[in-house]
Amino acid sequence: MYVQLTFMETMDKYGMDAPAKKYQELLAKANYKLWHANVQARKNFHDSIFPPQSGHPDYNLHADDIDFQIEADYIGFMCPGMPQTANKMADKIGHIMN
């Protein structure tokens, strides 16, 4: 839930078209614990590895974990009746960690 709230905060501050790097930045600077692909995405930000590379298996050993599947449902709430928009957002945000 807390990762979803961070992503919604990013949308609120920077708009629906915010670049993936902004989502990763707020995730990296959030003051809560993360695990698996999410914590590696945070580390990648601090190592200047940005999306989509930050979610690639070459840079994230947990890229095949289900982190984004757990977090993705909020996109449907943000894009009701707009499957193409939701798909575009999921592709952009999901590659931060997976």
Q: Separation of termini?
A: 18 Å
Let me know the largest β-sheet.
none
Task: Give the oligomer, counting copies of the same chain as homo and different chains as hetero.
Answer: single chain
As a percent range, the share of strand residues is under 5%
Radius of gyration: 12 Å
Number of helices: 6
Uncertain segments are none
Write the H/E string, N to C.
HHHHHH
Please tell me the overall pLDDT: 97
> Portion of residues in helices?
55-70%
Inertia-based shape: globular
The overall number of domains is 1
Q: How many β-strand stretches?
A: 0
**Structural class label:** mainly alpha
Provide the descriptors you would attach to this structure in a database record.
98 residues, mainly alpha, 6 helices, ADP-ribosylglycohydrolase family protein
In brief:
58% of the residues lie in helices and 0% in strands.
Give an overview in words:
Helix content is 58%, strand content 0%. It is mostly helical and 98 residues long. The protein has one domain (1-97). The longest helix is centred in the first third of the chain and has 13 residues, at 2-14.
SSE blueprint:
Blueprint: H1 2-14, H2 20-29, H3 36-46, H4 67-71, H5 73-78, H6 83-94
